[in-house]
Amino acid sequence: MEPLALLLKILRYVWAAPCTAVGLSLAIILLLLGGSMRVRGGVLEVALRRGTRQLHFPISAITFGHVVLGLNEQLLTQLRTHEFVHVRQYERWGLLFFLAYPASSLWQWFVGKNPYWDNHFEVEARRLSTVPRKNRRA
After folding, report:
1. Which pairing describes strands 61-64 and 67-70: parallel, antiparallel, or unpaired?
2. What pLDDT does residue 106 have?
3. Distance between CA 27 and CA 66 in Å, rounded?
4. 40-84: per-residue pLDDT in tens?
5. What is the predicted pLDDT for the residue at 138?
6. Where are the transmembrane segments (predicted)?
7. First vs last Cα of the chain: how many Å apart?
8. Residue 124 in contact with residue 82, Cβ under 8 Å?
9. Are strands 67-70 and 43-47 parallel, antiparallel or unpaired?
10. How far is CA 3 from CA 9, 96, 126, 135, in A?
């Protein structure tokens, strides 16, 4: 890897680091509940193990910086391309993503649209991913 490319990669990780720290904190909880973890493409994926008493969450997976949390490994596999788009969004927006994402949802609600489905970041993630329609809950 060229020095400039390496520097830019490091800067993307540093810029997203505060959000990744939140993800790591939540990942510890999932791991204590019997979850598993693996690194794919520079992203830590943490999933509850099949057979673990599933907590009821309205989402299948969620991303915080370079950490993706999922209800199980199968869902993480199905939603990986979608969630990795969110990783790239965190790399662009850094800590501002924690403001920009809910601001987009609030705006969509204000103009009478669906706060999740019409959220700018979700629209982009669906457009750039290959997630099957039936699994687009994340």
Report:
1. antiparallel
2. 99
3. 11
4. 999 999 998 765 555 666 789 999 999 999 999 999 999 999 999
5. 46
6. 12-35, 55-72, 93-111
7. 33
8. no
9. parallel
10. 10, 27, 33, 39
80 falls within a domain: yes
The domain in which residue 110 lies consists of: 3-131
Query: How far is the CA of 60 from the CAs of 18, 69, 71, 98, in angstroms?
Result: 23, 8, 6, 19
Tokens of 34: 């019997």
Runs of H (alpha helix) within the chain: 3-32, 73-93, 97-110, 120-128
Domain count, the chain: 1
Nearest by Cα to 19 from 89, 74, 77, 121:
89
Which amino acid type is present at position 8? L
Token digits of residue 21: 């720290």
In what side-by-side order are the strands of the sheet with 67-70?
36-40, 43-47, 67-70, 61-64
Do the domain assignments include residue 137? no
Residue 136, token pair as written in the block: 């687009």
